[in-house]
């Protein structure tokens, strides 16, 4: 796993990737999303046993998406990925 701390954008981005394992990572205070699938064509990835924490909602919110206050622990576009035993706070 990895540790992503105070990311200026998404903590971990899965882009154009299939059948990968994103596991045992810790994301602390990522702006926007902690873990993000970008295009919706990412398929059969396993996102497992990760921890995504935002210490204060205003810190993790972004205004560059045109909707102030938009943030998420795990944000998925598309429906063919497995999300197992993750923790979001």
What does this structure look like?
This protein is mainly beta and 89 residues long. The protein is 4% helix and 36% strand. It is built from one helix and ten strands; from the N terminus they run E-E-E-E-E-E-E-H-E-E-E. The chain has one helix at 57-60; strands spanning 3-5, 12-14, 21-23, 26-28, 33-37, 46-48, 51-53, 72-75, 82-84, 87-88.
Q: Which features does this protein show?
A:
89 residues; 4-stranded parallel β-sheet; mainly beta
SSE arrangement:
Blueprint: E1 3-5, E2 12-14, E3 21-23, E4 26-28, E5 33-37, E6 46-48, E7 51-53, H1 57-60, E8 72-75, E9 82-84, E10 87-88
Parallel strand pairs: 1-4, 2-5, 3-6, 4-7, 5-8, 6-9, 7-10
Summary, kept brief:
Helix content is 4%, strand content 36%. It is mainly beta and 89 residues long.
Kindly name the structural category. Answer: mainly beta
Whole-Å distance between the termini?
A: 18 Å
Give the overall average pLDDT. Answer: 90
Biggest β-sheet strands, sense, barrel: 4 strands, parallel
Percent range for helical residues? under 10%
Give me the side-by-side strand order of the main sheet.
1-4-7-10
User: Helix and strand string, N-terminal first?
Assistant: EEEEEEEHEEE
pLDDT < 50 runs, ≥5 residues: none
State which percent range the strand residues make up.
Answer: 35-45%
The counted number of beta strands is 10
Rg, nearest Å = 12 Å
Number of helices: 1
